[in-house]
Write a structure and sequence with these properties.
Distance between the termini: 28 Å
Structural class: alpha+beta
Strand order of the largest sheet: 2-3-1-4
Radius of gyration: 18 Å
Helix content: 25-40%
Number of helices: 6
Low-confidence stretches: none
Length: 223
């Protein structure tokens, strides 16, 4: 299967810039939702199309996508920079990576839980802020190690640069008890153990909340 890695930049045309407050809301959860809808403008070629792309915001007004189809032209974006993504990888090769992920696991009698949020709930509220990043590092590393078993890689090392919690976009109820999900920003080194399985998993993405900019792992060869 051919994949495409694309860089999309918001159009600088006055007609697109006039929509900036709609395309880039200040509230983080609304911003994720707006960007999710924005990226669909480049990939939703029919009313029944299922999402077949991953995306992440690189910086204000600039996005990376990994998709099964090249993005379509849109008045909302500049001409997209599109490259075929078909790296030739070998067993034992080490790669640098960057991943923004919503990391979850199944918990008995509870269901799916965010791996960091779950352990933080057991910490007294007054201590959570100081313990937050230590737990994010520990749980993020453990989660990605588990992912590698089925995804064709061995984790060599990882650093969690940030862990944030977002309210589920579209929630209109009381703040207390609102649906939330955590986002881990991770960078590190991995070793390929099964190139075919690894590339297949890159196409699928890692973790959940893929509609909201999570799951796309960026890789590069180490010099």
């Amino acid at each position: 299967m051919t994949l495409y890695l694309s860089r999309l930049r918001l159009s600088r045309a006055p007609s697109a810039q006039a929509l900036n407050d709609i395309l880039n809301p200040r509230e983080p959860a609304l911003r994720l939702d707006a960007h999710h809808r924005l990226l669909w403008a480049a990939f939703a070629d029919s009313s029944d199309r299922k999402r077949d792309f991953l995306w992440r915001e690189e910086k204000a007004g600039e996005f990376l996508t990994l998709s099964a189809r090249p993005p379509a032209r849109s008045e909302l974006f500049e001409e997209p920079d599109v490259k075929e993504f078909a790296p030739q990888l070998a067993v034992g090769e080490r790669l640098a990576f960057a991943l923004r992920a919503n990391a979850t696991r199944e918990k008995k009698e509870v269901g799916r839980v965010d791996v960091v949020m779950d352990v933080l709930h057991a910490v007294p509220k007054g201590s959570r802020a100081s313990e937050r990043m230590a737990f994010a590092q520990r749980e993020g590393s453990a989660w990605l190690t588990r992912q590698g078993v089925a995804a064709g890689f061995r984790l060599v090392g990882v650093e969690v640069g940030d862990y944030s919690v977002m309210a589920l976009p579209g929630h209109r109820g009381r703040r207390k008890g609102q649906p939330q999900f955590g986002i881990l920003d991770m960078t590190g080194i991995l070793e390929v153990t099964d190139p075919t399985a690894f590339l297949a998993r890159l196409a699928q993405g890692f973790g959940r909340a893929k509609a909201f900019g999570c799951g796309l792992m960026l890789i590069r060869r180490r010099r």
